[in-house]
């Protein structure tokens, strides 16, 4: 069930007017305010945008103590938004008293008793962008790193009717499966390094910081949520996504037996850390491009 939203009429007037034309001849930015007035966000609109043609929306979520600007500097989705043609937002989480920003995702990471409702906030981000941009509602995607990966799963749990697919890099879903009740199937991509010491590939149980499932269990749990029957986990190839590791270190495994249009995959970065070195010598970021390619291959059925 969708949570009630409080939407503020919060588009910065001059910026919004400057970007309200039916066709964007150049890339543009507009600052908007969603359900949390203290957290305005900026939507990037590629030059190929036209009001006449629905366009995908990608929301990128940062990790604990980071920001939207920091996670964009890491993944650099903005150039892909321009070249591939999608609307793009990288919002900020709520600051802890000490100043570290976070998403109130699961009990494992990282609200620490917060009363923030980030599902409502991020859903209102979608609504606010949709008020001034023609969003393809079958292609709304959430991608996150670490705490942002946990929050991506939370959005799939609580706002499944709004989200086509998520990509979690070094995150995990709820350990308590009863806390996630998606209203419909959502495609899920889990990317995780086996040498991650912050969010462990094999998961964690108390007395660690908080219980969370392993990367494989996160995907298997979503196979249950999505109604994947008589399923098997098959190798789907290898990729070179971490420039610090030799060869094609990432093994792709795919869950079969899912409903038509639903994809579930685990990309295991063998030897990969919590922050893989995703920038290659030529300046490209194959991981970012591969995730966007995967998300776009999984619109809402």
Keywords:
301 residues; alpha/beta; Rossmann fold; ten-stranded mixed β-sheet; two-stranded antiparallel sheet; 7 helices; disordered N terminus
Rg over C-alpha atoms, rounded to the nearest angstrom: 18 Å
The stretches of 5 or more residues where confidence is low (pLDDT under 50) are: 1-21
CATH class reads Alpha Beta
CATH topology: Rossmann fold
**H/E topology pattern:** HEEEHHEEEHEHEEHEEEH
The residue-averaged pLDDT reads 90
The portion of residues forming beta strands comes to 15-25%
Short structural description:
This protein has 301 residues and is α/β, with parallel strands linked by helices. It contains 7 helices and 12 strands.
Q: How are the SSEs placed, and which strands pair?
A:
Elements: H1 13-18, E1 28-32, E2 41-45, E3 55-61, H2 68-75, H3 78-84, E4 87-89, E5 94-95, E6 101-102, H4 118-132, E7 135-145, H5 147-158, E8 165-169, E9 187-193, H6 215-225, E10 233-239, E11 250-255, E12 264-269, H7 286-296
Parallel strand pairs: 3-4, 3-7, 7-8, 8-9, 9-12
Antiparallel strand pairs: 1-2, 2-4, 5-6, 10-11, 11-12
Helix pairs in contact: 4-5
Structure explained in plain terms:
- With 301 residues, the protein is α/β, with parallel strands linked by helices.
- 23% of the residues lie in helices and 22% in strands.
- The chain has a single domain (13-296), classed as Alpha/Beta hydrolase fold, catalytic domain (Rossmann fold), CATH 3.40.50.1820.
- Helix 4 packs across helix 5 (147-158).
- It starts with 12 loop residues before the first helix and ends in a 5-residue tail after the last helix.
């Amino acid at each position: 069930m969708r949570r009630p939203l409080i939407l503020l009429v919060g588009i910065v007037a001059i910026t919004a007017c400057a970007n309200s034309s039916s066709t964007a001849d150049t890339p543009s930015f507009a600052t908007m305010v969603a359900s949390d007035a203290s957290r305005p966000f900026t939507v990037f609109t590629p030059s190929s945008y036209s009001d006449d043609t629905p366009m995908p929306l990608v929301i990128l979520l940062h990790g604990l103590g980071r920001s939207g600007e920091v996670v964009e500097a890491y993944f650099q989705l903005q150039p892909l938004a321009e070249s591939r043609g999608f609307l793009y937002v990288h919002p900020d989480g709520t600051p802890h008293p000490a100043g570290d920003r976070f998403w109130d995702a699961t009990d494992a990471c990282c609200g620490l008793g917060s009363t923030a409702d980030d599902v409502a906030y991020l859903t209102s981000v979608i609504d606010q962008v949709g008020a001034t941009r023609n969003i393809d509602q079958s292609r709304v995607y959430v991608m996150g790193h670490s705490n942002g990966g946990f929050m991506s799963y939370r959005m799939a749990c609580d706002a499944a009717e709004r989200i086509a697919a998520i990509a979690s890099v070094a995150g995990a879903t709820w350990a308590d499966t009863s806390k996630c009740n998606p209203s419909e199937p959502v495609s899920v991509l889990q990317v995780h390094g086996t040498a991650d010491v912050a969010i462990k590939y094999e998961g964690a149980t108390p007395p660690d910081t908080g219980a969370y499932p392993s990367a494989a269990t996160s995907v298997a749990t979503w196979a249950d949520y999505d109604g994947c029957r008589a399923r098997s986990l098959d190798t789907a190839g290898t990729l070179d996504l971490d420039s610090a590791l030799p060869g094609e270190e990432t093994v792709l495994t795919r869950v079969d037996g899912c409903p038509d249009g639903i994809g579930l995959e685990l990309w295991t970065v063998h030897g990969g850390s919590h922050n893989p070195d995703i920038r290659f010598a030529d300046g490209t970021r194959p991981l970012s491009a591969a995730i966007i390619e995967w998300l776009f291959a999984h619109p809402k059925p």
